[in-house]
Each structure stands twice: as structure tokens, then as C-alpha cells.
Hints:
Layout: H1 4-17, E1 21-29, E2 32-39, E3 50-56, H2 69-80, E4 84-88, H3 107-130, H4 132-135, E5 137-147, H5 149-159, H6 161-164, E6 178-182, E7 185-186, E8 200-205, E9 215-217, E10 230-233, H7 234-243, E11 248-254, H8 268-280, E12 286-292
Helix pairs in contact: 3-5
GO molecular function, one term: hydrolase activity
Pfam families: BD-FAE
InterPro entries: AB_hydrolase_fold, BD-FAE-like_dom, GDXG_lipolytic_enzyme
Amino acid sequence: MKRILPVLLLLFVLQISAQTKRTFTYAVKGKDTLKLDVYTPEILRPNDSLPVLLWMHGGGFAGGTRDNAAEQKLCEYVANRGYIGISISYRLLRKNQPTGFGCDCDNQEKINTFKQAVIDYFDAAKYIVKNAKSLQIDTSKLIAGGSSAGAEAILNAVFMRSYFIDDLKQYNDINFAGVLSLAGALVNVDYITKSNALPSVLFHGTDDNLVPFATAPHHYCDPSKAGYLILDGSATIAEKLSELEVAYYFHKVKGGRHELSSIQFNEFDNIFDFFAKTVLNSEVIQTKIIKQKKP
């Protein structure tokens, strides 16, 4: 009996560790209870410490959910690659707003929306770093990922924390190791420097009508509109990373529109092979893929 009990205990621990999905509340802000879903590999040993993809869904800061079918499929794929996939909810500040998030939305309101999304993202990152041991994550291998609005938020969080965060000290323990952006942009590419540049995967269509492919107004608003705000998109970010001699994987589609914000499941093997080489093994690889949109 003495020999059987330790074996049963070990099997019990392994069974708990192998759970596919767990949900936690990382913050409560007003009426919003913000949660994150943690997806782990099927086999997770007690002493494992794995890299993480911290994912932020799209939806124009007005819609989308952390646990829709695409986000779940993404995190399950990530877990099968030996990572931990985490998908978060955040405050949808433009939901039910009459001006939406387009050209009628004041540009300062857009900046504030970015700011609050950045703060939510950092609070989620702070939660998982604080609970790194129980979640079995390697905090030195934290990849920031997002699509559309989520990509805008994570790019601004990773590269412009000093601009958007008033109290930086509370996030001192958060250091990102890589970026996965699907049709994203940030406020000012000049904030990317040699000290904060990271291996980045960027997907974007050249004719994206919402988030600029290079440097252009958000939603291509006319200068006379309240929502006129210049953003730097994937092409500008890739050019900056190239100048800094930092690894990147830039996938552009000629004629592609905002559909490049959809999760690129057919490209995942290439994406995570890139992360394996650059984030996990510190290689510097610069890759540009150019495709033509299919008729």
C-alpha cells in the first residue's frame, strides 16, 4: 500500500496538470469582469515551464470574444506545439457607441481606447506572471499576439508602454519575447528601438481599408474628420525592424484587405517555426513573403 499511494498521487497531479482549458478572472473593472482562458498541452509534467502566447481577439473594440471558435482553435494548436495558449477578454469600450471606432470617433477617444486596451493587456500579463508557477509558464518566453483591434492593442502595449502606461513600475516584471500581429498598427513606429524591438510576425493586406498597411490614417479618414489619426502599419514596422537588424516574418498580400486579420491557420507551421528559431533559439531571421490575393 505504501508503494501504491505515491503512484496514485503522481497520476492525480498529472491528470490535473493535463487539463485542456482553465478559466481565471484577472481583473474586475466597473461592470466588466475580465477573464482569461489557459490552454495547456495534453501531457504537462509537474516541473514543466512552457513558453506562452498571450492572445487578444479583434472586433473593433466593440465585439468579439476570447472563447469564440477561432480563438479556441488557435489556443489548442498552440498547446499542441508545446506552448501554453492564453486568450483574454478586455473592455470593449466602443460597444454600443454611436460614433463606433471609425472616422466619427474623435481621435483622442481612439487614443484613450488604445490606452485602456493596453492597460487591460498588461493586467492580464501581470496576472499570469504573478501566477507563473501554478500556470507552469516561462515568463522569459512570453509572446504577445492579437488580430485587428487586438493586434493594435498588443503592438502599442509591446512597443509603446512608456507612452500609454502612467505607472510603469507595477509592470516591471513583464517582458515580452515576441510578437504575432494580424492586420495591426501602432501609433508611432519611432517608439521601436534597439532596446525594445522583438522578433515579430506580421500579416497584412496592402489594400486593408481599416488598419493601414503602411503609414496612413486609421480607417483612411479624411483630415477633416474627427477620427483622423495617423498610424504605422505592418509595412512600416517591418522596415523599422529591418533597419534595427531584428528578426521578423512579414507576410503581405497584394490586394488583400482586412481579411488578413483572420487567424491564419494554414500558416501556423511557418509562424511557430519562426518563433522556435528566433524566440526559443535567439536566431536573427528576416523573411518577407509576398503573395497575390486570389480572385
